[in-house]
TrEMBL record:
Its cofactor is a divalent metal cation. Belongs to the metallophosphoesterase superfamily. YfcE family. This is Phosphoesterase. GO terms for molecular function: hydrolase activity; metal ion binding. Residues 4-162 form the Calcineurin-like phosphoesterase domain. The keyword Chaperone does not apply. It comes from Clostridium pasteurianum DSM 525 = ATCC 6013. It comes from the Bacteria. Its EC number is 3.1.4.-. Transmembrane segments: none annotated. The keyword Metal-binding applies. InterPro entries: Calcineurin-like_PHP_lpxH, Metallo-depent_PP-like, MPP_YfcE, Phosphodiesterase_MJ0936/Vps29. NCBIfam families: PRK09453.1, yfcE. Coiled coil: none annotated.
Length: 183
């Protein structure tokens, strides 16, 4: 079974990208799932720490064989021109241990507007910058938070899916949310 590493909302922060890639390496995950908003910070957000979308894209491209990504509301066709892996799809469906993982950014589908999923499937999204791990009508609803600009007093965070357990962790490795797919 693959160990999956989930990040969202990099927003062009070179500082947090480097930090999260060190964590990815130490977690020994197989793939990086990016839930959108890789390069641009968006007009509503302040500039993130060490904002450098050009270098962020260059570093992400070195991991292109390990990345599965979806488009965020701040991502554009111009971003696809510099990123060497697909980023323009609103969602992706990934099969994991006999369940569908519906991967999306969260600006179209989210906990308040679920896609059509079967009992036991999961929607995993970013966008809100707020960690979440809950079950809603027998669907797992998960958000790993934001690595660069968390909101509502939450820490910078990421997600790990390993052995049917999804953990949202802060950048020090502390589990802040957890949900088991076996329950």
């Amino acid at each position: 079974m693959n160990k999956l590493f989930f990040i969202s909302d990099i927003h062009g922060s070179l500082y947090y990208l480097k930090k999260i890639l060190e964590i990815y390496e130490s977690e020994k995950a197989d793939y990086i799932i990016i839930l959108g908003d890789e390069l641009y910070h968006g007009p509503r957000n302040p500039l993130p720490k060490d904002y450098n979308p050009k270098e962020v894209s260059q570093i992400l491209n070195t991991y292109k064989d390990k990345i599965i990504a979806v488009r965020g509301n701040c991502d554009s066709e111009v971003d696809q021109m510099v990123l060497e892996y697909p980023v323009m799809d609103t969602y992706s469906i990934f099969l994991y241990n006999n369940r569908r993982l519906f991967l999306t950014h969260g600006h179209v589908y989210n906990r308040d507007k679920l896609p059509y999923l079967n009992s036991g499937d999961a929607i995993i999204y970013g966008h809100t910058h707020i960690p979440l791990a809950e079950k809603q009508n027998d669907i797992f609803v998960i958000n790993p938070g934001s690595i660069s600009m968390p909101k509502e007093g939450n820490p910078n965070s990421y997600g790990i899916l390993d052995d049917d357990i999804f953990k949202v962790k802060d950048l020090e490795g502390n589990t802040i949310k957890e949900i088991s797919f076996n329950k």
